[in-house]
Input
Amino acid sequence: MDKTCALVLAAGDGKRMKSRHPKVLCEVLFKPMLSWVIDSCRLAEIEELCVVVAPDADEVRAVLPEGCRTAEQAEKLGTGHAVMMAADFLEEHRDCSVLVLCGDAPFVDEETIRGALREHRENGHDLTVVAARLEDPTGYGRIIRDENGGLRAIVEQRDADEKTRLIQEVNSGIYWFEAAFLLDALNKLGTDNAQGEYYLTDTVAIAVSEHRPAGIYRAESPDVILGANSRKELARLNEIARKRVIERQLDQGVNIPFPDSVVICPDTVIGRDTTVLPGCILRRSRIAEGCLIGPYTMLTGCEVGEGARVEQSTGEDSQVAGGARIGPYARLRPGSRIGAGAKIGNFVEIKNSRIGEKTSVAHLSYLGDSDVGKEVNVGCGVVTANYDGKQKFRTRIGDRAFIGCNTNFIAPVSAGAGSVIAAGTTVTEDIPEDALAVGRARQETRPGWAREKGKYRR
Output
């Protein structure tokens, strides 16, 4: 969006949230509230961003996108004071329209930002306030209109009389300014109010008194103004966001028969005819059509192919090809790639490994740093011992190998295609193709020993 920039106010601490972290880092659907706001700015094609932070806000800086500027607010003297701290940024963008908004209002969206800017520019405003109507406006600044319906003032809750407090149209804390006007208005702000602070809302009174063009944009959804000052309010934001995402998934053909216990983050894409069962948490994942996910499955950063099943399992930064079956009670750790039609069964852990097509790892095994071919049968209790205490090594198993129960691979080691490894073998040397490997002590039986020397001897 040409000739625009944005200023995000994010210097608040987490005291009211009972948190040692800054409030803007409290998460809605596992994503910091500040990141929701910045992403909406980017979707609206606002590339020049500055975030006002506290001096010790390294955590906040860590979540900012590359190229995002910061300004420090050492003293908490109000929203107007926070904007003053970014005067250098505003001066550099003096010929721009500047969006000012709060970093703890995650539901501001691209449509509201674009719509308000359209209103701002089409009417030649120096200042446009985004407003919303609330059934319960308690705590919000009230929009005061003149006899023609135009913007006259914004009165904060603490400074409002009883009549003003009955007004249901409130200030969202989102504004479009012409930067030149904003810089001039900041120099005229005072602290003659109940809080003894510099209110950004006083720029409205300045615009009106100077007969500068100012207006109001009414947001379509009142949710754009919602923020959180307590854990209860944060939980409410999470529930609103959760329901929104689920409704969108339902509209796109995803089957969620019992949605009350399902959490799907907005960065997750799900194909039609996929069923998501209760207890699932799906984050930044892509799930193809016709899959079955759940119940009680958590996927983070995963890709799941068409027709795959992931049941009562967890996966992180992994790929599951079409037709594969995962679980119940399996764990896919980062870097795992499961081939088409493969089976990863109960209490199996896969880490940084490639599992070939139609390979079966049915139960109670650990495969770490391994390359396993197609149509391999991995018996119960198989372990690839990938760590020698200093370094990680890989195990390689060829196509159609048969791995007996309780086999240990001491990496680095390989088993060739078609090889057979007897149960209980510890593999310390490479096994050629089509070979049989037996690496265990020969059984010795001593008749009568238990009766004479065993624990329960007679």
Q: What stands out?
A: The chain has a mean pLDDT of 94. The two ends are 90 Å apart (CA to CA). The chain has ten helices and 40 strands. Residues 231-251 form the longest helix (21 residues).
